Amino acid sequence: MIATCDADGVPNITYLSQIFLLEDDRVALSCQFFNKTKKNVLVNPVATTQIYDPLTFDAYRVVIKYSHEEREGKLFEGMSRRIDAIATHSGMAGVFRLLSADVYDVVSVENVAGFKRPGDLPSVPQQPSAVQYRSEMSGLQHVSQRISRARDLEELYACTVEALEEGLGFENSMILLPDETGSRLYAIAGRGYGESGVGAEVGLGEGLIGTVARERCILRVAGVGAELRYGRAIRTSVQRATGLRGLRPEIPLPGLVDAQSQMALPLVANDRLVGVIAVESKKTAAFQEWHEAFLDIIANQIASAIENMTLREKDEKDEEPAVPLPPRSEPAPPSKCEAPALKLRFFKSDDCVFAADEYLVRNVPGRILWKILRELTARGRTEFTNREFRLDPALGLPAIRDNLESRLVLLRKRLEQKCPQIALVPTARGRFRVDVTAPLELEESA
Asked: Which residue from 316, 342, 313, 359 is spatially nearest to 437, judged by alpha carbons?
């Protein structure tokens, strides 16, 4: 909170979105809706803020003196990105935005005595977990070794999120890749989300992950719950004051619904965004500055590995003969299955595939799956090569860096989670077999 006075000494108190520590004696405050606050400090520069320790909830009163505002540059951009991430999440993009980063000199800091009642909350910081006692360098070494030993893209994605938990204690993490349009990202691997992780999508510029992808910068946010409550409160105030009912609804984003700490980093190789790695926690202030530095090193290694493996596998598979395998002369195995028939529907308008009326996959993975299933049911064919998918113009794969392997990884994982009656089984480099355990009924809808 911040308290100011006008020239006549009449006080005004309101809530703050951010207080950003610059140096030991300087802070920057986010100026968004502070018409009265800004007007007051321009004539009476002394203000008082009250802040709270995120672990102990001890309160501190900080007296500050207005120095100047910044509307561009590194400080402004860093504070603005964080606010933009919260704004897009709460449907307030363009309304909940940073006008200026106001720099203040710190005059004094004092503990607010009697703020908490005895027994309310612990007065000592939470005890660190066992992972925090490990050497940070050992954790970094462990993650790096796991990444370097990956034999293919599927193993790279899986071992990365596993190693982040084993080496650095990040229980909830995910890797997201851009789709063929470049306007959305989809989760290719996740840790700590059960079946809800793989396949989850987020638009470019939406939430923390989308903002990191668009700006190609690291973002770390603590107190996410409080930030969202603040954004929602502003949203309600705007609606009441202006009567605007057409604000964009809050966007459901991938991840924990009750996350308190979030951090995301872009995966960039050869100046090209190849993905985003995101970690989060239910603990307040779970991530520190050294986590940013460590993850930045890991992100660079992951990005290079994804780029190199994608190009290597594409080059190797391009050497395979383009002739598809001959059709089987015998009836397709699905017709022999005694299990109940599995109904699958393909929607041509957005390339979505539904299995038993439940969404399964869409876009390129959806088109690939439908091609496989039509070949299977029409010709009894079960063997396929990556090469033939690359040469099929109907799939719409980009000519360069098509990320076909990553899309096949996503398709396999979605089938394992949502449709176990169908399995894509790798048989050799660039080759796989489709196995089914139920008769299939295919239907197309415009």
From this structure: 342
Between the alpha carbon of residue 310 and those of residues 213, 269, 313, 401, the distances in Å are 20, 12, 5, 7
Q: The domain 333-445 is classified under which CATH number: 3.50.30, 3.30.70, 1.10.260, 1.10.10?
A: 1.10.10
Chain segment 174-232, per-residue pLDDT in tens: 999 998 788 889 889 888 887 656 888 888 888 888 889 998 989 888 877 677 676 66
- Taking residues 349-367, report their average pLDDT: 87
pLDDT at residue number 114: 80
In the block, tokens 């709270």 appear at 52
Look up the CATH number of domain 130-223+260-315.
Answer: 3.30.450.40
Counting Cβ atoms within 10 Å, is residue 58 exposed (0-12), middle (13-18) or buried (19+)?
A: middle
CATH 2.30.110.10, domain 2-111, yes or no: yes
Tell me the per-residue pLDDT of 376-412, one tens digit each, with 9 for 90 and over: 999 999 999 888 888 888 887 766 566 788 888 889 9
Which part of the chain has CATH 2.30.110.10?
A: 2-111
CATH 1.10.10 placement within the chain:
333-445
Could you tell me which of 352, 305, 361 has the C-alpha nearest to residue 187?
Answer: 361
Give, in degrees to the nearest 5, the angle at Cα 259 between 238 and 203.
65
The DSSP element (H or E) to which 156 belongs, if any, is helix 153-168
* pTM above threshold 0.70: no
* CA–CA separation, 365 and 378 (whole Å): 20
Q: Max CA-CA distance within the chain?
A: 93
Using the structure block, give the residue that is written with the tokens 């939406």.
Answer: 206
